[in-house]
Amino acid sequence: MSEQQKGIIFAANSYFLWGILPFYWRLIDDINAYEILAHRIIWSFVFMVILIIILGKTRVFKEQTIQLLKNKKEAVSLFVAGIVIAFNWGLFIWAVANHHVLQASLGYYINPLMSILLGMIFMKERFSKMEWTAIILAAIGVLYMTLSIGEVPYISLLLAISFALYGLIKKNVHMDAIFTILLECLATLPLALIGLWYLKSIDMSNFGYNIDSGILLFSGILTAIPLILFTAGATRIPLSLIGFLQYIAPTLMFIQGVFLYNEEFSTDNLITFAFIWAGLIIYSYTKYQQYRIQRRKLTS
Q1: Counting CB atoms within 10 angstroms of each CB, which of 105, 168, 191, 214 has the fewest?
Q2: Share of the chain above pLDDT 90, in %
């Protein structure tokens, strides 16, 4: 199996797990979003530490961390990645808890095309007329929603931009996927601990001896595993292909929002999604054609 094939499998599985996360967060929506985010960071950190110890990679982790700290650009990139992904987590948790699963879904549908633009600007990737058509169709969809509802779909756009930036930043960090996630959690751990202490001091914490808290303990595993898979995939395949695979997660979110949580899906929503789906179909077709050409070259 080639490195690119491994990357596709890793990334696709990460998006599948992210796609079913709304169901998990809705199980504990009695806990406020910031407290969930803080625990998500803490338990992800704990899980990653345990995982590295079990895998016997503590020595390698120390060596790679020392090398990372010698490279100021990569160290800063990893710190920024931790902040960006924490923001993305928090906004997503808030959106799900406040019945905006469809907005979250839209954001992650936009994200692949946002990744394409960032790939073009920062990674010097170039695209065909068909791919540009896909980007324009998605932009029309977002513009239509903005005009039809009278306000910018800021939840969708912020989710799309933050996760696309995270993927771009991680391309600049050359370190084992497991180690980068631990360090990202470490970067935001002080804020999480301070936040929980503050919530406790004003008697706003809901964490304790209850079912929701028990469910919340698994947030570390459910956060770390897809991130490991995503990072492993992102280092093996182009950013544009990462964007293509991203549609798996929003499709699962869309299904949950409409059929499980009965969120309103109006005609305006349908038109917006139709433009974006059309763009993704066109882009998917162009990537498939490129993949066929590459395979022919390899087998000839």
Answers
A1: 214
A2: 34
Per-residue pLDDT tens for 119-129?
777 777 777 78
Q: Quick check: 243 pLDDT over 70?
A: no
Q: In degrees, to the nearest 5, what angle opens at C-alpha 91 toward C-alphas 254 and 27?
A: 60
Which H helix or E strand runs over 21? helix 21-27
| Longest Cα–Cα distance in the chain | 69
Cβ-proximal residues to 272 (8 Å cutoff; 6+ apart), any chain: 106, 141, 142, 144, 145, 148
CA distance 45 to 224: 8
Residue 238, burial from CB neighbour count under 10 angstroms (0-12, 13-18, 19+): middle
H/E element holding 140? helix 129-149
Contact of 95 with 101, CB cutoff 8 Å: yes
- Report how far residue 266's alpha carbon sits from residue 298's, in angstroms, rounded to the nearest whole number: 47
Q: Distance between CA 219 and CA 24 in Å, rounded?
A: 9
b/e sequence 114-123, b meaning 16+ C-beta within 10 Å:
bbbbbbbeee
Dihedral of CA atoms 91, 92, 95, 99 in degrees, nearest 10, equals -170
* Beta-carbon-side half-sphere exposure of residue 76 (alpha carbons within 13 Å): 3
**Crossing angle of helices 101-122 and 154-170, rounded to 10°:** 40
Token look-up 């169901």 returns 23
Q: Is the CB of residue 78 less than 8 Å from the CB of residue 180?
A: yes
